[in-house]
Specification:
Number of helices: 13
Structural class: mainly alpha
Helix content: over 70%
Shape: globular
Order of helices and strands: HHHHHHHHHHHHH
Main location: membrane
InterPro entries: TM_pro_TauE-like, TSUP/Inactive_protease-like
Protein name: Probable membrane transporter protein
Family: Belongs to the 4-toluene sulfonate uptake permease (TSUP) (TC 2.A.102) family.
Distance between the termini: 30 Å
Largest sheet: none
Membrane topology: Multi-pass membrane protein
Amino acid sequence: MLLGGKFWIVAWFFVAALVYSSAGFGGGSTYTALLVLHRVDHRVLPMLSLACNLMVVAGSCWRFSRRQQMPWARCIPLVLGSIPMAWIGGSIPLDREIFVPLLSTTLIVAGCMLLLSGRGGENSATTSDAPGSALTESVHSLGNSESNEPKHLPMKRMKFSFNFRTSWQLGLGALLGLLAGLVGIGGGIFLSPVLHLTRWGSAREIAATSSLFILVNSIAGLIGQGSKHAWSLSEIHDQLQTHAPWWPWLLVSVFLGGQLGNAAASGWFSPIGLRRVTAVIVLAAGCRLAFLFGQ
């Protein structure tokens, strides 16, 4: 039988990677939900989701960096706060009776946050390339006093100082990193709505920041997941072969979907429409998990 009877999950992973990468996400929340619905062992499930995340967001981060659209200085507090906590969260053992309800709740909350951030996201999306936009405000926040400064600042001019805003972002990164590590996702699905609601930056800046956030948290969470069970690489491979022998096809599908999604992010899809579609997907997965677990 084709792919051991798992053709549809491979197809859904491809679609999820296509949609999420277009919005700057990795898709870990949907991958995790799909794997839970297919009753994959909860011990290997987060590692597989995080690996798929990495396949998708690595391309997004490269695209944003190459186009000088990554607000590096403003990303630093969020990333620094999240990395150790994502590792800690990934290393905490969770029984299935705790893992599934926690995942379901986080998906529903994330979906609601995405829908609530729609109005703020529309404003930032429509003004992201206009004079006086959040992007220009970001430039001024980095210490720029020239009105005719180009939009993309050289890395050598980045400035980083500790203040209340910095401590708030460190705390936010730590909280979301811990949650991401616990449920085995990158955390961008939580970070992006918060940044939109607080008018942190333009839609493009938030997408770039979310991609980097997901990348570093996926790496830290993957290390934590591996250390939690004290498995070697060969043992991880054996566990994947036992509980999800079709896992290589998932990696191939998300890689291809991520590549197409990165191209789509150049202008095929509306960022507002993508966020709404993502919200519906996440809400549906969370509600479905809650329904199945309650049976």
